[in-house]
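Collaborator request, handled under Task 6.
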Amino acid sequence: MSLRIKDLPDADRPRERLVELGPEALRTAELIAIVLRTGLKGRSAVQISDLLLQRFPSLDCLARASLEELQQVPGIGRDKAIALKGVFALARRLASELPPEPPLLDRPEHIADLLRTENRHYSVEMFQTVLLNTRRRLIKIEKISQGTLDTLLVHPREVFRRAILANAAAIVLVHNHPSGDPTPSQSDIKVTRDLIRSGDILKIEILDHIILGHRTCSRSRDYVSLRELGYFSK
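Structure tokens returned to the collaborator:
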């Protein structure tokens, strides 16, 4: 004889508890009981779920169990085993659709690692902005302007217009030196300070300005951080 969930007291009915409290308030066994729907052989669906979790102590173990292994648990017949396999298959498909978390870009080396390969092939200076959210994770990379071998024109309106459209909380400035020497020029320093002042007005923080070059025998890093060099000091 099956023991149905609706025959249980209200406090022990997982469907009603989910409606009232939300799924996060339910134990794993209660969520599984909703999938099983009814009990069997004098056991409630929650009690059968508890037995399942004793036999398979993690959701990963339960998801990997075969139909035959699931049916070895008292109260789990073919239909309930199939329902469980179907739920876990859907969960795997959902996980595959979720985008990976954007990279954390809170250090100069992380920015350099992100953009090094692409910038290595530019024969002229290319100015880019790395737009970040409040947790310093990547929103997107914007190419702002392209210059000549050693000259670059940057308009603050382009930098901040794109940041505002992307709802960015902070920006890292990046450009390359095709010569390979990442030492900042006076023009680089002036552009940086102008953009910092503009960002202060708009409440969008300029976190750093990274200049990418090439490693040499005497230069172990292929980039410089203008913040590390002290150009962001008030």
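The cover message to the collaborator said: "The longest strand covers residues 138-146. The chain has two domains: 5-97, 108-225. Please let us know whether this matches your experimental observations."
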